[in-house]
Write a structure and sequence with these properties.
Blueprint (H helix, E strand, L loop, with lengths): L8 E8 L5 E8 L2 H10 L3 E7 L2 H6 L5 H16 L4 H11 L3 H15 L4 H6 L7 H13 L2 H55 L8 H37 L1 H13 L3 H22 L4 H9 L5 H15 L4 H8 L4 H13 L2 H56 L1
Antiparallel strand pairs: 1-2, 1-3
């Protein structure tokens, strides 16, 4: 008969230390009595101990991928130092400011304390620990080299998050500037242009075509601004829902992104880097190549590469060498294929793939910096044309009037 796990909650406490200083904090535990006992062991005289509601926890910080990467690195450090597993959970859990992260670490600890393996405990939290992560931890436990595997997983997670952050950096800046440009243009058309329009009404002369076009656009926005706003919100919501619910939409978007100028090259190199980093990590962990490729397919971050890796897995399972199969897909650069071939011939495939990953991660880093440098003057030109065009449209009749006089 299975023993029901005792529910662990987060408690906010107040107390006074030996010097008489008032202290506050949060601890995870089964009940207030155990929290008070734990505080007394630390030399704190407990006062109020209140259970934090689930709604308050949910309203707090979400658990991000960065938190999981930090947890992995700290676990690897603890294992290397020879700290027992359960004690490592206590030390690491107390170090997180995020109450949700502390709760997650404590729940994993309770599963391990109940007799489950570390990997089995992680598999009960699939929203935070994916199949690749759990498989690598499982391989480390079975081989008796959990510290080494956790270090590899930590490096993998840190590199992956760094790569994602670089891509977000490249995308966020232009999107933010475009948003500001749209807002500024809308304000000019709705608030500023009508002021000029009232002045032009007393001219009694034919206005330039360009000015008439801007006035017509201004009148449309003054009347139907709510409809334009509604369409923009509905479009944004529709795209977001389609991305979440439709696999075909995500696949089409992945394919389109690879074909875009500048952005396509960035996405391509980042996918190659992810492929090489993931395969290097799994293969070094002792996972057979065919099984490793199964995990790699979903980690590339792009459906085109996912399909290519699935074809590679099928080829490798029939006896074809990895480098031949990579070349046959036509998706991988020559340098990556040649390094893979050298790795297969020398028996150091994981080492070569790690070098490939590092090279393309550096390439992505350089591309992000270059893209940002290129985008700045381009965005300034676009903003200048939009805002300058509106200003010229408004002042053109005044210039013509001055010429006529």
């Amino acid at each position: 008969m299975a023993v029901k796990a005792v529910k662990v909650s987060v408690y906010a406490w107040e107390g006074i230390d030996k010097k008489g200083t008032k202290m506050t904090g949060e601890l995870s535990g089964h009940n207030p009595a155990l929290i008070k006992a734990q505080l007394r062991k630390q030399g704190i005289n407990p006062g109020k101990v209140r259970k934090k509601s689930a709604s308050l926890l949910r309203a707090g910080q979400r658990i991000k991928a960065h938190d999981i990467a930090l947890f992995t690195r700290q676990m690897a450090t603890m294992m290397k130092a020879g700290v027992p597993l359960l004690q490592s959970f206590d030390i690491i859990g107390e170090g997180f400011d995020n109450p949700n992260m502390r709760k997650l670490v404590d729940e994993v600890k309770q599963e391990v304390a109940a007799g489950n393996s570390f990997a089995a405990a992680l598999r009960k939290k699939p929203q935070y620990f994916d199949e690749l992560y759990c498989n690598l931890v499982d391989a480390g436990e079975q081989a008796g080299a959990l510290d080494t595997l956790l270090e590899r997983v930590a490096t993998y997670k840190e590199k992956s998050e760094s790569l994602k952050a670089k891509i977000k950096k490249a995308m966020t800046y232009p999107l933010a500037v475009v948003f500001v440009a749209v807002v500024v243009t809308g304000i000019l058309l709705i608030k500023v242009v009508p002021q000029f329009q009232s002045v032009f009404a007393g001219f009694g002369a034919q206005l330039p075509v360009f000015t008439l076009m801007v006035i017509a656009l201004s009148e449309f926005l003054q009347t139907w601004w709510w409809l334009v706003l509604l369409v923009l919100i509905a479009t944004g919501f529709g795209v977001r829902q389609a991305f979440r619910r439709s696999q075909r939409f995500r696949d089409a978007l992945d394919t389109y992104l690879l074909k875009m100028p500048l952005v396509g090259a960035l996405m391509y190199k980042s996918s190659v880097a992810r492929y090489a980093r993931t395969l290097s990590t799994t293969f070094a962990a002792g996972v057979p190549l065919v099984e490793a490729l199964d995990s790699v397919a979903g980690a590339t971050g792009n459906v085109v590469f996912k399909n290519a890796v699935n074809r590679i897995r099928q080829d490798v399972s029939t006896g074809m060498q990895l480098n031949f199969s990579m070349r046959a897909t036509g998706m991988f650069p020559s340098m990556a294929v040649q390094m893979t071939a050298i790795g297969e011939e020398s028996g150091a495939l994981d080492d070569m793939l790690d070098k490939v990953a590092s090279f393309y991660e550096a390439e992505v880093d350089n591309m992000v910096d270059n893209l940002t440098s290129l985008m700045e003057p381009f965005i300034m030109v676009v903003l200048g044309v939009i805002v300058g065009g509106l200003v010229v449209a408004m002042y053109l009749p005044i210039f013509q009037l001055g010429t006529a006089i």
